[in-house]
Amino acid sequence: MTETNKPAPGMNRRGFLKAGLAAGGAAAFGGAAFSGAAGAGESDPLITEVQDWNRYLGAGVQAAPYGVPSAHEAHVVRRDVEWLTASTESSVNFTPLHALDGIITPNGLCFERHHGGVADIAPADHRLMINGLVDKPLVFTMADLMRFPRENRVYFLECAANSGMEWRGAQLNGCQYTHGMVHCVMYTGVPLKTLLDEAGIKTNGKWVLAEGADAAGMTRSIPMEKALDDCLVAFKMNGEALRPEQGYPLRLCVPGWEGNMWVKWLRRLEVGDEPWQQREETSKYTDLLANGKARRFTWVMDPKSVITSPSPQMPIAHGKGPLVVSGLAWSGNGRIKRVDVSIDGGRNWTTARIDGPSFSKALHRFYLDIDWDGSDLLLQSRALDEHGFYQPTKNALRAERGENSIYHNNSIQTWHVKEDGTVENVEVS
Amino acid sequence: MTETNKPAPGMNRRGFLKAGLAAGGAAAFGGAAFSGAAGAGESDPLITEVQDWNRYLGAGVQAAPYGVPSAHEAHVVRRDVEWLTASTESSVNFTPLHALDGIITPNGLCFERHHGGVADIAPADHRLMINGLVDKPLVFTMADLMRFPRENRVYFLECAANSGMEWRGAQLNGCQYTHGMVHCVMYTGVPLKTLLDEAGIKTNGKWVLAEGADAAGMTRSIPMEKALDDCLVAFKMNGEALRPEQGYPLRLCVPGWEGNMWVKWLRRLEVGDEPWQQREETSKYTDLLANGKARRFTWVMDPKSVITSPSPQMPIAHGKGPLVVSGLAWSGNGRIKRVDVSIDGGRNWTTARIDGPSFSKALHRFYLDIDWDGSDLLLQSRALDEHGFYQPTKNALRAERGENSIYHNNSIQTWHVKEDGTVENVEVS
């Protein structure tokens, strides 16, 4: 793979808007005006039709105190893969990344992953206990927690198994399924450090066990250094209370680390002197290597990216000409420094434009605005984070970790864009 | 009003957490543990109760492809004021600011203001026309617009009439009603400049008329300097398609300027050499002064802030001790530089902590963490923006603009916190 970063073929940026619109369907309009406020002009069948909806009063403001999307967007929903799990209570659905833009995921579209269903918790009855190697064990009500100084932070949350099915080859046809176990919201909560300091950590307290109040009793061990760094005990996401499937009324945020550790329905934090070796950090969420040994405590989600459009669920419908290539990049190490895009399967790379906020351990939105010549493309994106870590190719990842693993597949994804604009999930050697 | 910025009475920050928790209801817990993964301990009635919900499998992932809030949050909805408007189609409801945190407003809670109801538009049939003093009149489909380079920006949107009822005195008891005609989301769209450049602005083109496809045919004149500066033709909010009540499928963003200009269901942009003097910029959305003359084209939303908690809808339920005073500040001029909070009706001011992102022309979240001594408070907040503009007192605003106006009330709001923790909307002289 060369590192030229020169413009790829067909990427002449100058004047593409002028050239493209002729091809792109925006009709030059010969002087007739809407019969609106600015005066009537010649009528046109098209314009007459589009004026129709201003003849009628629309719905009033009381129709939906809590608003919902347009019926025309009914296809933009989380979706599952039926054969993937045995029951809905221990299952997953996927964020429709292909249909979204920017870096904020609407709460109603954040993917779900449960091990014992969605706990139904009355917040007034919920408690958070801190026990173990602390000076003063404590039990907090939700009202207690609301009295500590708060922080607001935007973080991505990615399941360790995101893209796991792709490890052995291109299998799922759409970035919703291949990469949709990630979301990004603004959390409001109390730093975990504040609560641990309140209880007083004993000198031999080196680990924190986070335990959920769900039927699965999700429990994970977190090293004290991380617990005191940037973890949040969060009660709001995107401004409002956590959604039930995201841990209402309380979840732990473990920024940049695998989603399984972001314990939902958080009810207990125990301080100990060593990790607890829970099921979810021994039997599961370890990475089986080719030699039969497993990597353990592989917490950080490495730099990763995916092109969300065009993609298998977002084919090109408009033919040749201007094309917005858009995608997401993220790294558990910090900020994304650069994203490169290839249209020829990784032979040549062009630096994409990152647009919108760049927060540490959050999604980044990138674009490459190209002039598509109508030929086949092998679209790839490659993220580089601020600490110099690159997203690997799938073959490089396999060479290092074998093919037994499910978790922590952060390799480069390839979409095959065909001449008719349809897009397929493929592998390039 | 003095400018001391010294800590106000009762604001001793040191050690307040230790002191406060004893008063605050977090019980010291004497060694018994949950009968969970970490081993069984002595039982406790409270702990037994809170363990109950992990005995049952919760709901599965397919229950709600598009997720909704917990039933326990059913009170967090947009609300209207019944007597305020004659019909629901030309009415308003209000963002529940008191119940939110951070700076992002969830799409389902963004206030609505319509003049002819919510237009029901099929995006495939929608068109945006650019006509008037341009070299090449154009009509765009939604698909055409998706081919231009995009931007992602977080902006507040405030109705010019927000807080309008308060001009003549404290009337509405709750910040949802006094200040709830504001929201803040991340927009994705195409710069208006890009589209105008595509059509080619003639040299005498100095104004742009934005026209909506709703029954009200909302139309506003925008000076070309603003149109070419930071306006966006947006199709997404917080990542997903615009909500119907926010202009689906297309709205104009006019950052920092009054919400009425952010034309929803955008269907036409006409370039002209002077403003159009539309109803919404002559009969309405002008500010009648005491002398009978009206200020016109008062576009910018001046610096403003409000304490969202405690507030009339968010009384203090926990008694004395640690109290999080939280609020929002914003300015149509740019970033918020500082927010001061007073607990004594404006005699002394303490600088609040702004937390979370600080974007130009976006909401800012501030906190003041105090130790409440249980006495009466007269809570106020005062915003200062990066250009040195301060939020005025209500009396200062009246002295300048009289009492005839409804629009552009950005004055300091006062909440009277009583000894029992209830909060009332009051005025201080």
From TrEMBL, chains A, B:
GO terms for biological process: sulfur compound metabolic process. Keywords: Metal-binding, Molybdenum, Oxidoreductase. InterPro entries: Ig_E-set (IPR014756), MoCF_OxRdtse_dimer (IPR005066), Mopterin_OxRdtase_euk (IPR008335), OxRdtase_Mopterin-bd_dom (IPR000572), OxRdtase_Mopterin-bd_sf (IPR036374), Sulfite_DH_SoxC (IPR030835), TAT_signal (IPR006311). GO terms for molecular function: heme binding; molybdenum ion binding; molybdopterin cofactor binding; sulfite oxidase activity. Residues 297-414 form the Moybdenum cofactor oxidoreductase dimerisation domain. Its cofactor is Mo-molybdopterin. It comes from the Bacteria. Residues 115-277 form the Oxidoreductase molybdopterin-binding domain. PANTHER family: SULFITE OXIDASE, MITOCHONDRIAL, SULFITE REDUCTASE. NCBIfam families: sulfite_DH_soxC (TIGR04555). This is Sulfur dehydrogenase subunit SoxC.
